Every structure is written in C-alpha cells, then in structure tokens.
Amino acid sequence: MVTFLFKTEPGAYSFERLLAEKRAVWDGITNNAALAALRAARKGDEVLVYHTGDVKAIVGLASVLTNAYPDPNHPGLTEGGLPRTPVVDIAPIRAARSPVSLAQIKADRRFRDFALVKQSRLSVMPVPPALDKPLRQLTGL
DNA sequence: GCCAACGTTGGC
DNA sequence: GCCAACGTTGGC
After folding, report:
1. Partners of A117 in the β-ladder
2. A92, A116, A119, A130 from A3: Cα distances, Å
3. Which residues contact A132 (CB under 8 A, 6 or more apart)?
4. Which of A13, A84, A96, A127 is the S-S candidate for A3 at Cβ 3.0 to 4.6 Å?
5. Which of A80, A44, A81 is CA-nearest to residue A62?
6. CB–CB of A95/A70 below 8 Å?
7. How many angstroms separate the CA of A127 from the C1' of C10?
C-alpha cells in the first residue's frame, strides 16, 4: 500500500466536496512528473489530500478505488501499454483531526527532502514510506 | 536538438 | 500582486 499526496485548489475541488459526493475521478493532471506518479496508483492505495491556495494544508485522507486507468476524455493515448493520461477514482475516508500546514511541514526537518517542500508545483507525488507515519501522526489520519 | 520566449503554478 | 521555479512551445 502506497500513500500519495494529491493537491487541489479548494475553490476548484475541495475535500469537503469529496466528502459530500463520496467519490471522484481524479483527472485534469497534465504535468508529466505528476502523471508518472499517478500512473503508479493502485486500488487500495491511500491519498493525503492537500489544499493549495489560501489553505496550504493537508486536510484529509482518501482511498484509491481503482488502479490508474486511461482518462475517458483522452482515450487511446497510451505509452508502453500504460495510460498516458491516467486517472484514478477516489473516495473520502475522513477529514484530518488537525490539518497540517505547509509551514509546519517546512519547519520540520524530517520533511526537508519531501517533494511537497522541494517541488512546490508538483500536484501528485508519492509519500516516502518514512514520512507516511509522521504525517499521519501530525494530521491524526 | 537547442534554447529563448512565453505560460503556469503556487507560495509569499 | 509579485515572482521563483518550473514546464512548454516554436524558431532556427
């Protein structure tokens, strides 16, 4: 089981909306590094959901319901048998008891090399196993 | 294939 | 609102 971090601008799609709608297709990713990360997502993986913009905090946890599959809106685009524009379906698990801000994460030396800190524009990334527990402890997820 | 110009994201 | 840090595009 891999934990990912997905960023979203809450004005465009919020974790609250995911809680209300119970399921979402995570699409609209265009950046290649983010697509490569998303392509590796498998059913049973989990997702820390991060709000960008005014919030800048990890706000909730979701589960990955499907393996990465080709975006139905971009059919036929494949690369080595794998979807070039992968999407996954996710469902909310729960909101964070204590959302953890980017400032907190940046201030914590354990997260020094985390892509969230080092590559501010990356919107999908795996959470390194060593950082998964600390992040869940801080968020209560 | 290189790289200058331009566009975008997201933190500040 | 600005701009750093990217990514993308297109001329050559």
Report:
1. none
2. 14, 14, 18, 11
3. A3
4. A127
5. A44
6. no
7. 36
Residue A62: both structure tokens together: 């979701």
Domain that holds residue A108: 3-139
The CATH number of whichever domain residue A130 belongs to comes to: 3.10.590.10
Whether the CB of A85 is less than 7 Å away from nucleic strand B comes out as no
Distance A118 CA to B8 C1' (A): 18
The structural domain count of chain A equals: 1
Residues 6+ apart with CB under 8 A from A116: A5, A50, A102, A105, A122, A125
For residues A100 and A33, give the distance between their C-alpha atoms in angstroms, rounded to a whole number.
24
d(CA A56, CA A93): 20
| Unique residue bearing structure tokens 């801080």 | A138
**Percent of chain A residues topping a pLDDT of 90:** 86
- Using 70 as the pLDDT threshold, list the residues of chain A that sit under it: 75-83
